[in-house]
Amino acid sequence: MSKHFTDARYYLGRAVDHATAGVKEEVEPVAERARELAGIEEEPEPSRLEAIKADLIAAGERAAETAREAAASLRETVRGSRDDGDAA
C-alpha cells in the first residue's frame, strides 16, 4: 500500500509542476502586454559571459587607476630626491 502512496505523491508533484508551467505560459502574454501598456520594461539579466566581461573591464580600470597613482607617486619621489641632491 505504501508504494501506491509514493506513486500518487510523485504524480501529484508532477501534476503541480505541469500546472504551474501551464499557468505561467498562459499568463506571460497578458503580463507582457500589461508591462507594455504601463511603460515598464524588463531588464534582461546579463549572461554569464557579459557579467565576466564587465568584471574584467572594471578590474582593468581599477588596475589602470592604481598604475597612474603609483606613477604619480614615483614622479613626486624622484622630484623630491632631485631637489634634495641639488641643495647639498
TrEMBL record:
It comes from the Archaea. Residues 68-88 are annotated as: Disordered. Residues 76-88 have a biased composition (Basic and acidic residues). This is Uncharacterized protein. It comes from Halopenitus persicus.
